[in-house]
Specification:
Elements: E1 3-6, H1 8-11, H2 16-32, E2 35-39, H3 41-47, E3 55-60, H4 63-74, E4 77-81, E5 86-90, E6 96-101, E7 103-106, E8 115-118, H5 121-126, E9 136-138, E10 146-149, H6 153-158, E11 161-162, H7 169-172, H8 175-187, E12 190-191, H9 193-203, H10 213-224, H11 229-238, H12 253-272, H13 280-288, H14 294-304, H15 308-316, H16 319-328, H17 336-343, H18 348-359, H19 364-380, H20 389-394, H21 402-415, H22 422-433
Parallel strand pairs: 3-6, 11-12
Antiparallel strand pairs: 1-10, 2-3, 2-9, 4-5, 5-6, 7-8, 9-10
Helix pairs in contact: 8-10, 10-13, 11-12, 12-13, 12-18, 13-15, 13-18, 14-15, 16-18, 17-19, 17-21, 18-19
The protein binds adenosine-5'-triphosphate (ATP).
Adenosine-5'-triphosphate binds near residues 54 and 179.
């Protein structure tokens, strides 16, 4: 039987309306004769003194049927994943909640998704990744807030330790290797000795290679979404895990410096362009692969099954960004339109990386120059020509590739401030291309 303590005050730290909702759901479970628990990260975080609203519920009984009941009662949106015996609810006020059948899991082979069978809450907690995540609180009336700690989760939270529940844990699910580093880095915890040995053992085999691309990508990008990804990358290197991104990935001193400079570059970008949403994990992936060969980066993109946009970003992180950076930090004068052409194909993520590369070189004067160029460039993105393809057609020009060239020249002249009005655009077209209309 799990070790239990009554800690109702812990749950009271959640917002009042959430506590009320959890009480009502516990009551509903009681009426239906099933025990309902709140489990995992939210309980861990409450014990650490943080409030998160990642509401994961486990039901001893039919979790999906119970989720339908809750959704009906509250008018919540419902998505059901039969195969995993889980459901996701979205309440009218936007609150999200996952409800799952408490289960035991069995792995037919390492690294594949498990098959699940209904089980007790103790078994459900046993199939979890680490003791600190294997904590649950009861929601039923009279038991509301009772903490179940069958595997020493509270002890490990106090000792700031990440510990697996059994020796086969990393074999069953190698994503736990990256999860271990994620929690270690996030909380500043240590990997418990045996856990570290088991992790190193699993990392020395090819288990991780058996993970599907999307699962591996998900773990790496989640790790890079944490507070200090440069440190997480260093930890991956120390534990010889970078080889699973690609065995010839170049993790050099330069890469380390660039990754460490990303926060400064991101902060500058966010201050100057608060409306531009940056895919931060991708910037780190770009930084990490920025000294690797084109072939290595291409293989990594395939292995990770990156989306087209992510792939475009990651493959620009090396020589494309370097070329633009070299040009922009050269002393000689460059026209604003030249800068525009140089940067127009790069995403905002690539521009942040470009800045991080310069920040990592610690050259104050050139850094200010680069920042000025970036500010001007982003401003120039809003510049438009008054004349369009339709006007060229009216002028008797047959549609074709020259439209792009001519309108491009017109835009360049606008950006450089050579022309500022539609009349000047028309005069420019007449003079340069003999077009009248
Ligand atoms: P975060 O704060 O990053 O969201 P979390 O602990 O809430 O962390 P989730 O990925 O949301 O993590 O998972 C919720 C819970 O499900 C975890 O606390 C853990 O108990 C369990 N879990 C998630 N992934 C695994 C896994 N790969 N193996 C075993 N248990 C897992």
């Amino acid at each position: 039987m799990a070790k239990q303590t009554h800690r109702p005050a812990l749950l009271q730290r959640l917002p009042d309306q959430v506590v009320r909702l959890l009480r009502e759901i516990g009551q509903l479970g009681d009426e239906r004769g099933c025990q309902v628990y709140i489990v995992g990260g939210v309980v861990r975080d409450l014990l650490l003194g943080h409030v998160t609203l990642d509401l994961d519920l486990a039901v001893e009984g039919d979790g999906i049927a119970f989720a339908r009941l809750v959704a009906d009662r509250y008018g919540a949106g419902l998505a059901v994943f039969e195969r995993f015996a889980t459901a996701r609810l979205v309440f009218p006020d936007g609150l999200k909640m996952d409800i799952a059948t408490a289960r035991r899991e069995s792995y037919a082979q390492p690294a594949v998704l498990p098959t699940v069978q209904p089980a007790s809450i103790e078994e459900d907690l046993y199939r979890r990744d680490f003791t600190i995540n294997a904590l649950a609180m009861q929601l039923s009336p009279g038991q509301f807030g009772r903490l179940l700690d069958a595997y020493g989760g509270q002890r490990d939270l106090r000792a700031r330790t990440i510990r697996v529940l059994h020796a086969g844990s990393f074999q069953d699910d190698p994503t736990r290797i990256f999860r271990a580093i994620r929690f270690e880095q996030r909380f500043g915890f240590r990997l418990e000795r045996t856990t570290l040995r088991l992790l190193a053992q699993a990392a020395s085999t090819n288990l991780i290679q058996q993970l599907s691309g999307p699962r591996l990508q998900n773990e790496i990008l989640l790790l890079f979404a944490e507070h200090d990804p440069a440190r997480a990358i260093a930890r991956l290197a120390q534990l010889k895990l970078l080889r699973f991104l690609h065995r010839r990935l170049c993790y050099t001193t330069k890469v380390k410096r660039v990754a460490s400079a990303v926060p400064k570059a991101l902060a500058w970008w966010a201050r100057r362009f608060p409306d531009s949403a940056i895919d931060r994990p991708i910037v780190y992936l770009m930084a990490l692969s920025s000294e690797s060969s084109v072939a290595v980066v291409a293989a990594m993109i395939r292995r990770f099954a990156l989306s087209r946009e992510q792939a475009k970003n990651v493959s620009a992180g090396g020589s494309r960004v370097d070329r633009a950076l070299k040009r922009l930090t050269n002393k000689g004068t460059v026209r604003r339109s030249q800068i525009f052409r140089l940067l127009a194909d790069l995403s905002d993520e690539a521009l942040v990386l470009l800045l991080a590369k310069q920040v990592s070189r610690e050259q104050g004067v050139r850094l200010s120059l680069l920042k000025r160029h970036l500010l001007a460039y982003v401003k120039n993105r809003a510049v438009k020509t008054a004349l369009t393809g339709r006007d060229l057609q009216t002028m008797g020009l047959k549609p074709g590739p020259q439209y792009k060239t001519i309108l491009g020249k017109l835009l360049d002249a606008r950006i450089d401030g050579i022309i500022t009005t539609e009349a000047e655009e028309r005069a420019f077209l007449q003079k340069r291309f003999g077009l009248v209309g």
